[in-house]
Structure formats: C-alpha cells, structure tokens
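Section 3.1: Structural characterization of target chains.
Under the original work plan, the team committed to producing a structural model for every single-chain target entering the pipeline before any wet-lab resources were allocated. The record below documents one such target. The sequence was received from the expression subgroup and is listed exactly as submitted; it comprises 320 residues.
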Amino acid sequence: MNIIIDKKSGIPLYIQVKNQIMEQIKNGTLKVGTKMPTERELSTKLKTSRNTISAAYKLLEQEGVIVSYQGRGTFVAEEAKTWKRHSINDRLLKIIDLGLEEALEMGLSSDEFLALVKDRVKEKQDIIKNINAIFVECNIEQAKEFAKELSAETNLNILPLTIKELKDRDEKTEEALNRAQLIIATFNHVNEVKTLISDLDKEVLGVAITPCLEAIVRIAKYPKGTKFGLICISSEFQFKVESALKSAGLEVNIEATTSKEIDKVLDLINTSDAIIVSPGRRKEVAGLVNDGREIISFDYNLDQGSVKAIISKMIELKKI
C-alpha cells in the first residue's frame, strides 16, 4: 500500500490518508478482504501520529469501506456501489411532467402522448431481448442463479461464466465474450473481470449482492458459544459471511476451510456444532453430514436497486 503525505498541502493528514486508501480500493490495488496494516504499523511507515491513522480508519469504517474484527485486524470491506440510489419515482415524474407539457404545447393530446410513450417503451423492450450479456461470478452455481435472476428482471439474454473460465479463455468462452455486448459482475469482481478482458472492447457493469436473511436468522437462533464450521470455495466468501454476520450484530464463533481434501473437510464437520456452506459446496457437504446436524446454506441475492440500474446504465452508455 503506497501512501504519500504532503504536509504542506493544507489538507488534513488524516483526510489525505483516507482519500488515498479509498482510491486504492476503487482502482483495485486493495481488494475485498485484504488485511490492512495496524494503526501503529501505518503511522510508523508514514512517520505520522497514530491518531492520524486512527481518524482515517474511523472515517473509512463509518463509510463501510473497511471493517475491524477484535483480535483479527482490519480488512477491506465491500467496494462502494458504482451508482448511488436516487428517488426514482420523483425523478421520473418530473421527466414525465416535462414531456407531457412539451407534448401539449406542440398540439398533442394527453392520449396521443401516452400512446407515444407506450410505443417507445415497447421498442426498447424488443431491443433489450436481443442483447447478449455475460454474468461473471467466482463459482458456477452462483453464476447460474444470478444470471437466471437477472435475465428474469431485465429480459436480457445472459450467459453465466466463472472467473476461472475467463482466466482459461478456451474457444467456447472466447466465442461467448465476442458475442456479448455487455459483461456484468458482482462489485467485488468488477476490477478483476476488467483486467481479464482488457484486450476486448467490452463494458463491465457491477451489481451488488445482499445476504439471504433466512440464513442469518437461522444462525442467530443458535446459543452464544456455538461453533460453526464454514465450508466454502474462497477466502473471499468467508470474509463476506463474517462481514454480513457482523453487520447483523452477531458475534459468531466460525472456523472455516476452503480445502477440497476430504479429511480436512470431515475434520471441520466433526468438530463443529452446525455447518454453514457456500452455494457451490452445498451438495458436497450434504453428502458428508449424516447425523442430523443443520446445514445452513449462506446464499446471496441480487440487490434490486443494482438490477434496475443495469438498464439505466445501458441507456446511458447508448447500448440501446
């Protein structure tokens, strides 16, 4: 992490530190789940007071950019959403009012204006149905679910792909990428996807995902001190689960593994009171737990605000 402080700039030092950390998260230098240096380590490196770093970290944590775990350290949290939510209804009503006023001034009736709007909307819907898109996630099970959900919401033709498939880029994947007009990924994968397809002239849009409330409620029902075994594909997923539980106000004792070795997985299962799994490992773990213990699948759903923003962003980019 490279931070340069200018003590003559007039900008408070903690703001300089905070802004440079934020910028490194945005450009992908600091990725989701990256452990941050301690306040003491960073203050020593930058030759500034610990209070300066503490103030910068506090601001970043308040904004949800970093998150701290007692005894473990401070980590980069989810990337900020690319598009902020707006009061959609208010904005659209103002646009509609302006359009109607213009139409009436030009001699159109309100019924003629309404018919024109309906025809235009149908025209856009027909174009959207012919657009090919790709949804990229780290595991194929989640990619398929998100692609299916997004297709239903937007009417786009969406093919699911994994990060690994982008890295390998076989002939079939290359053909799909060339055919697609749009690439969509969850926010924490956007920078990686952009890097992997940097040789292609493709726009990469991000969507946010939210943890399934049912899984959090099921975990919350267990008494304090329960040992949960988390079996997932990536350490990033582990970080997401822990962040989601902390955001829900739950202090949970979790031991996790991403290992595919059966002995290690069984060892964690046998020493845990309850099992949490990522969608990509749900079927595998279900075949190993046969004593009636609960298996909690920690699923994620697409954020509806992000889904709606996809269409708006496509129009902004003149895709339709």
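The chain is about 50% helix and 15% strand.
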